C-alpha cells in the first residue's frame, strides 16, 4: 500500500499546490518500478507542448501487487485527503494514469485548464517513482506564476518518494524540464468537480 500524510501544508502562491512525500514499502516500490519499466503497456503520445509515454491504469489488467491503486477504497481515501487539504468537495470519478518521460522528452509550460460544461478536472495528485534521480537527469518539476518562462516560482527534483499536487485553474502554470537521462516515472490521479 502507498499512504500519504493526513496533514499536508498547502502552498497558496502562485496557485494552490504542494510537494510532500508518500510512504511505501521498499519492495513494493521496486515491484512498481520494475513493472513500469519492463512490463507496462506504454503508448507514445506527442502533442503541441509535450512528448511522453502514457496509459490508463484503469484500462488494463494490473499485477496483483498494484490492483489496490485503482480500488474504490483507495481512491476514496485519496479523494478524502485531497478534499481535506484543499477544502473542496470532489466528484467520485478519479482517473489514474501513468507517465514515462525518457531522454529528450519535455513538458512545456501549460495549466491543464479545460473549458467544459461537464465534469471539470479540478485537482491532480502525482506520485513519482524515480530512484537515484538528480538534477543532471533533468525532468525537474517547475511551478510558474504565469505562462512566461521567467516567472519561475519553484523547482523540485522528482526524487525519492515525491508526492506532488495542484489545483487546476487558468493560473496553474507548470512544466517538466527536458529529460537528459533515465526514465522519469509518475502515477497521476485526476480528481473532478461537478
Set down the secondary structure blueprint.
Elements: E1 2-3, E2 17-21, E3 23-24, H1 26-38, E4 43-46, E5 51-56, H2 72-86, E6 94-101, E7 107-110, E8 120-128, E9 141-144, E10 152-156, E11 162-167, E12 174-176, E13 184-193
Antiparallel strand pairs: 1-3, 2-11, 4-5, 5-6, 6-13, 7-12, 8-11, 8-13, 9-10, 9-12
Task: Note the main attributes of this structure.
194 residues; alpha+beta; Jelly Rolls; 4-stranded antiparallel sheet; 14% helix
What features would you describe in this structure?
The structure is a single chain. This protein is an alpha+beta fold. It has one domain: Jelly Rolls, CATH 2.60.120. Helices cover 14% and strands 35% of the residues. It has two helices and 13 strands. The protein has helices at 26-38, 72-86, and strands at 2-3, 17-21, 23-24, 43-46, 51-56, 94-101, 107-110, 120-128, 141-144, 152-156, 162-167, 174-176, 184-193. It has a seven-stranded antiparallel β-sheet. A four-stranded antiparallel β-sheet has the order 7-12-9-10, with no helix packed on it. It starts with a strand and ends with a strand. The mean pLDDT is 95.
Amino acid at each position: 500500500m502507498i499512504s500519504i500524510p493526513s496533514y499536508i501544508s498547502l502552498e497558496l502562491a502562485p496557485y494552490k499546490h504542494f510537494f510532500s512525500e508518500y510512504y511505501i514499502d521498499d519492495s513494493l516500490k521496486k515491484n512498481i518500478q520494475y513493472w513500469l519499466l519492463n512490463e507496462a503497456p506504454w503508448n507514445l503520445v506527442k502533442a503541441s507542448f509535450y512528448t511522453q509515454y502514457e496509459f490508463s491504469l484503469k484500462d488494463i489488467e494490473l499485477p496483483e501487487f498494484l490492483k489496490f491503486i485503482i480500488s474504490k477504497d483507495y481512491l476514496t481515501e485519496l479523494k478524502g485527503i485531497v478534499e481535506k487539504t484543499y477544502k473542496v468537495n470532489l466528484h467520485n470519478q478519479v482517473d489514474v494514469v501513468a507517465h514515462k518521460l525518457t531522454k529528450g522528452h519535455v513538458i512545456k509550460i501549460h495549466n491543464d485548464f479545460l473549458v467544459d460544461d461537464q465534469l471539470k478536472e479540478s485537482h491532480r495528485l502525482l506520485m513519482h517513482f524515480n530512484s537515484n534521480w538528480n538534477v543532471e537527469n533533468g525532468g525537474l518539476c517547475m511551478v510558474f506564476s504565469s505562462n512566461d518562462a521567467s516567472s519561475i516560482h519553484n523547482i523540485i527534483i522528482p526524487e525519492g518518494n515525491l508526492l506532488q499536487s495542484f489545483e487546476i485553474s487558468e493560473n496553474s502554470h507548470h512544466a517538466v524540464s527536458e529529460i537528459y537521462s533515465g526514465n522519469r516515472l509518475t502515477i497521476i490521479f485526476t480528481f473532478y468537480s461537478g
